[in-house]
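pasting for ref. prot 1 ->
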Amino acid sequence: MDDTIRRLKELTDASDNIVFFGGAGVSTESGIPDFRSVDGLYHQKFKYPPETMLSHTFYETHTEEFYDFYRAKMLALDAQPNAAHRKLAEWERQGKLKAVITQNIDGLHQKAGSREVLELHGSVLRNHCTRCGKFYGVERIVNSTGVPRCDCGGVIKPDVVLYEEALDEDVMARAIHYIRQADVLLIGGTSLVVYPAAGLVTYYRGRKLAVINKGGAGSGLGAAVTVLVIVCLQLPEDLGTIVATAPEGWFFAVSGWGSCRRPAHRPADPCPCRTAACTP
């Protein structure tokens, strides 16, 4: 087994207080595109930029266009949990994993069996009337055309945090609590560039942090990083298979157990901090 994967497996095997912080990359193996990769949503051509169409302002001023885009690009109701979702649910059943903190809105963690799931950006599965507050399942959105309306005439709005909207304070407080108390913080499938969610990582106080992601991670890691593993988007049942499944050219680096502050670098590149522990 590769030394990096061995270290990661040692961290997870020895801990009964793991917290997982995940993003869109966790669900790509389930067929749901992410946002910032080459094939991601933000690289596709639309009449308006996706960030604009997913904003509160656009929702208010171009409501019908918002829902046309939302139905076409934000709903993937046939998607099924992948190995990452299943492994995390298994760890929770074993008493090893305390919580999943996710930026995803697809509900796949719960579908895989995870119970303590903190959805920072809400869920497409929950929808409410903006006038009377009546709850609707996602089917009401799917089966409607134009602007979905409640029986009272109000607009049915997805329980999804749009750009310009605040995250739920209770969910944020619970996420901070879990991250602060975590022994191992495992980050997967996120570039850590979407705030305020990415800023939650800075609350981690431990020294056992691992990142599994396609491409580099953002600056939200801070000084707490001791192990940085950047490999692929899924967390296979056998962690040792990660390397074998990682396509050529993906980042793969480890910062060792030292104090390196450098984000991931390719194995061929020397680390600027020049510490022995940080040399890939």
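and prot 2 ->
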Amino acid sequence: MKISALALTATLGIALAPAGQAAVKSVVLVHGAFADGSGWKRVVDILERDGYSVYIAQIPETTFEADVAATKFILDRSGPCVLVGHSYGGMVITEAGVHASVKSLVYVAAFQPSVGESAGELNGKTPPASNDIAPVGGGFLQVKPESYFMAISQVPISMEAFGAKATAAAWSNKPSFAVVAKQDRMINPDLERFMASRAKSDTIELPGSHAVYVSHAKEVAALIEKAAKSRE
């Protein structure tokens, strides 16, 4: 079988292209505290419709180290991707985002720590409007069940996870994007703005609560796709 020089050149060009230039067609989503990955469904539906492969890291919320490990397990097989975190998931993607598969990060109403900062410390500096988080025993925290429906099906998170300090800040050397939820009562919107500004993240603001990825799935998915296309 004869292969033209042009075809051979094109094939070799694809095979030898630097990994950083590979098309980013995968997205890894990390949920926040008190939740699981099912809340991402509306965002996933849009991304899959638009041709992206989507992975959801179901973090155990037992320790920060275990949550980062669960995320890296997904990154080991995702290929070049956008890594997205909501709420406490922002802590996780900041640490796990140093993984070679991660080409950009998206923070959705999320913590965006610098090295040495914890979620608890950041929340303490700029307190949120809500004070619905309380100990539930065994070293775990929960949202008071009477607060809203999602609270009665929640996954408690360990106090250790909230107190753990970031040892890496992936946003310091990878492109980052952020969503500020203007009516967020779990993380102060001013704290979200401060962290996004410090990281020089490409930022949008949306009218919505902490679960802004549910109420504004279309806009959140669009920002994720923008992050993917910025690395192609």
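The chain has one domain: 24-229.
The CA atoms of residues 112 and 195 lie 6 Å apart.
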